[in-house]
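Me: I keep going back and forth on a fold encoding question. No explanation is needed for now; the record alone will do.

Assistant:
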Amino acid sequence: MSERPRVYFLRIRREIEEREAAREIEKLLNLSDLLKILEKDDLTMVKMHFGEKGNVGHIQPRFVKPVVDSVKQRGAKPFLSDTNTLYVGQRHNAVNHLQMAYEHGFSIEKIGCPVIIADGLRGMSGVDVAIEEGNKPDCARTTVAIASDALYADAIIGLAHVTAHLATGFAACLKNLGMGLSPRRGKLSQHSDQKLTVKESCDACGTCMEWCPQDAISVLRERAVIDSSRCIGCGYCLCICPHRAIRFDWSVKPEALQERIVEHALGALKEKPGKCAFMNFAHHVTENCDCLSDPGKLLIEDVGVLASFDPVALDCASADLTNEAAGRDVFKESYAGIDYRHQFRYAQELGLGSTSYELVEV
């Protein structure tokens, strides 16, 4: 019988001073030996979320810098990274995204390494990765789109903030990888079952027609028209339209969205066996994720930081410890209609990790 994966847990408050944060994070990294995945000169992606404008719940720079410092001590070359958003906000393109990261304290001067937006200037830089179809007969997805720089990196260290989530019930490591390492078209395929359409605000400039890789767009009189029989849902028109005149449907059932996120996480990790490690920060756990300026109600302030080589075990433990600290299932309480643990079970089915784990308290 194989051993259960270990999840290391450090009880640490969010509001501590920088030197204490560094000491505690270094202690966690040393005990877990999380950075043994690294070799000299590895280009190492530290995947995180820099927070939307106005958001204060995201992982704080004082917890990120000791991770970066430890990576450099191993002789590897770290860079902080995320991908551009599908929705229109402060992280919709790489220029604004970088500015937002710097405003939230993730500058090279503060952290000691550069920030690279993994899917390029407009979120269009991605590669199709083949994955297994999974164990469900209705799972027809054979490829997923992954941000180019996630594939080109030698190693990935995922830093995720634990929150509830309005569409998946729970968000942490798996979502940080699946949604967070997808280019715009990968995010689009996760969120929508519908083809793209054109809004009335279109002024027939023709930009979308020039960029469409399928020649699925025509400009007729005063408006662009998308041929749904040719549209592949790549989202290029959504990225490039200067008037935000492309419409898509956000509606997808929670279980289907969780499965698509997990499938994209598989695509992001499958080419890097033994080169990925993960940390979850269960601090300032809120009812909505860091993509919102107002993340909603605070569910619990301080639980701690968890680390593991197994992303599934890590998310399971993060949910369990958060609920134990709160004395109730805060994720189910926030979104009663969503079975948030479906993502854990599905990820285990696809071989991403185990829902069973051994907890090691630091």
